[in-house]
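Re: export button greyed out
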Amino acid sequence: MRCLRMERNLFFRYNIKMAKETLPVGRQVAVSGVQPSGDIHIGNYLGAIKQFVELQNKYKTFFFIVDLHALTENPDPKKLREQTINLAALYIACGLNPKKTTLFIQSHVPAHAELGWILNTITPLGELQRMTQFKDKSEKHGVLAGLLNYPTLMAADILLYQPDIVPVGEDQVQHVELTRTLARKFNSKYGETFKEPKVLLQKEVARVMGLDDPTKKMSKSAGLNNYIALTDAPDVIRKKIKTAVTDSGSEIIYNTEAKPGISNLLSIYSAFSGETISKLESKYKDKKYGEFKSDLAELLVQKLSPIQEKYKSLLKNKKSLMKILDAGAKAANKVAEKTMKEVREKIGLI
Ligand code: ATP
Ligand code: MG
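Workaround output, generated via the alternate export path:
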């Protein structure tokens, strides 16, 4: 009950749309990105990428690989290059169609960094210091200015394309809310320039939890046993699900407070199978954790294998991936430059 109330407040406060609401027809704009900071996992897929794929049919969409954001973790350059191309292949393998969506690398559109800087100049330091991601990540990586300024760069990523909605996982809601605040602030200081976008959340899987710690969100940076990567081999998937933390007792029921581990696995099962959680609860009534987990592992192997095959085949032709990304950057630069022209003029840059 408490969870439900908290959730309702969150949705009210942050102007969030639910993915299952009827989406408006027409060419509204949707924008989002994923960091090439490690293995892309089922949390990224369910919370973000799966929504991107659905949205490209109704919206004008800009989806990108946020390599400048990934720099905040000081990655090995060779690895960053590899992960950037891998993510492009994975986006397409998951169903993004470069003919329908503008797919590009963030650093290929210099306006992101430029607008990020400009937004820094109207952002109070305290707004950035209170961000949950900044607090969590600076514990791990030290207090880097890049981590602190992550949300202003993200605000630029979004506002450049004048979107109506931003599909993200729940952990990014706070950053989109700051984006809305900055858009309002800029507009009232310099005149109407930016649209204030709404967050779009895939409610049931907006926060997939870690397999090794179901009280924290699944994260690329949290270690191998924390997540199922979209590219994990069948035996790795089976092993990870088998060793996923479960709860005391033996009942397979959804209760995030008393049974965070089983509840998380039920959400994942439901999202991949399309069966409701209550149907799964009845299906596994009187069954053991072991049987439930083994069925879930097989479901994941079956659902991820077509993505993996397509991914491997796309990576055989990196030149053609680069061509797609170049064309995407060209199209994105056009739109971003239009916004920047107006911004520069309004703030007094010659
Ligand atoms: P990192 O640990 O490097 O920050 P990450 O797993 O958080 O990686 P991001 O690239 O930061 O991944 O996020 C990409 C998108 O995936 C964002 O929209 C984010 O909200 C969403 N996302 C990330 N983790 C989850 C999760 N556990 N459940 C649902 N959505 C998620
Ligand atoms: Mg993240």
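The longest helix spans residues 318-347. The button fix ships in the next patch.
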